Amino acid sequence: MRSLFCKLFMSFLLITLLASFTTVMISYWAQVGPYGELKKRVEHNQIQSLTHSLSVIGLAAVKILEIGDKEALIAYLQEVGKQHHSRIVLLQEDNSTFSDHKLPPNAADLVVSSRKSHDIQYNLSETEIIVAIPLFSKNRQIMTLIGSTARIVRPRVFIDNKQEKVWHRLLFFRQRFGLPVIVIVSVAAAGCYLLARSLTAPIRDLRKATQRMSKGDFSARVDLCNRRRDEIADLSRDFNMMAERTQSLIQSQKRLLRDVSHELRSPLTRQNLAVELARQRFSDAEPYLARIEKESGRLSELIDQLLILTRLEGSVDNTPKELVHLHELLNDIVRDANFEAASRDRRIEIQNLNEITMFGSMEMLGRALENVIRNGLRYTTAGSAVEISTSKGKDSATIIVRDHGPGVPQKYLEHIFKPFFRVAESRGRDSGGTGIGLAIAKQAILMHGGGIVARNAEEGGLIIEIHLPLS
């Protein structure tokens, strides 16, 4: 089958044929086979039981009638009808009844036949078994006792004509359509389940491969081409081509970035050496040499950051894990950063520090926390503090870093974790930094299964929240 249309068409055709064949076989077995014989024996026993019951009831009814108590007769017939789950009517010689109950359908002909033959007569309709018994009073008046009950299944007690019609309709529907409907629904459900399983299984494989790609594993592939020959197989083939092309492009990009970064190190080293030699020979050029040295340092830092970001983006959770004490790691970072902050009239305050331990890469977690804290120091106003607080839950820990700077426009909050993204105004290149620190922090946190978000504080400043799983 080269297309899903053929597969769906053949599946529905097979389900229809199988349901029809199964219905015919079960109907044949029910009418002619062992079940049919069993049904006939049960109905014969029903007729015998109803006939015996009516004979006893008829004798009692004649006795009550001879006494002349018609109300007692009506009450008696209603009571025995409820006990036997049947409808019982006593018909007088003039075809009138002793109560408001009407005759069952097709009972009139049965009454005439019973009176003519002076014998018991019965009739099997689609839904009922009807039995008529002739009765003779002392004055030779001919009466007929009629009883009816449902075939096989006993009905509820008939209370009024409306309930009688509803019961007959339900019983008729069950006998005519119940078995075919059950068979068709069962076969269709089984066929649709198998068809749905056949269609969704490759889609689940595609979804798993897509999830792997979203986590950075561009080696994910779907192996469906050899097992299927339909549109889903074509989709999987296109997906594999896309994944292969994407993997090739990303690897080429990372290789280029890595090679450029490595190639820039050598001229930077030679440039720094030349600056030192020039400083020794030309003392009057010190301001210019200092500026060259500063820019070289920034370029060297940028190269280091690029190499780290490239390594993080290419990692698929294969970094060696170790037990990390986050509270101790934070203390060490804050202690080192406070030396730099003091010279710029800034400080770092730890407001709440819980004891937090987790498995992860101490190097990458340290870089992430240090980049976020130093980012806050870079933009907080002079004389203010960068505030750090932690909280620990059952399954995760939260680290909050807040500065008292100008904040970030709302529309840029989602972009500050992108490499080289800079917000205009105060958070520009003049404030220092390489524009990669927060991108490295995000990749390091994502590598540990966590998350990082930024929002503006109501009183001003930027708040960065880091969430890390403890398990």
From TrEMBL:
Plastid among keywords: no
Catalytically driven reaction(s): ATP + protein L-histidine = ADP + protein N-phospho-L-histidine
One GO term describing the cellular component: plasma membrane
Major place of residence: membrane
Natural source organism: Desulfocapsa sulfexigens (strain DSM 10523 / SB164P1)
EC number of this enzyme: 2.7.13.3
UniProt keyword annotations, A-Z: ATP-binding, Cell membrane, Kinase, Membrane, Nucleotide-binding, Phosphoprotein, Transferase, Transmembrane, Transmembrane helix, Two-component regulatory system
Domain Histidine kinase positions: 259-471
Domain HAMP, residue spans: 197-251
Keyword Transferase: yes
Localization per record: Cell membrane
Protein known as: histidine kinase
Transmembrane regions: 12-30, 177-196
GO MF term list: ATP binding; phosphorelay sensor kinase activity
Membrane topology: Multi-pass membrane protein
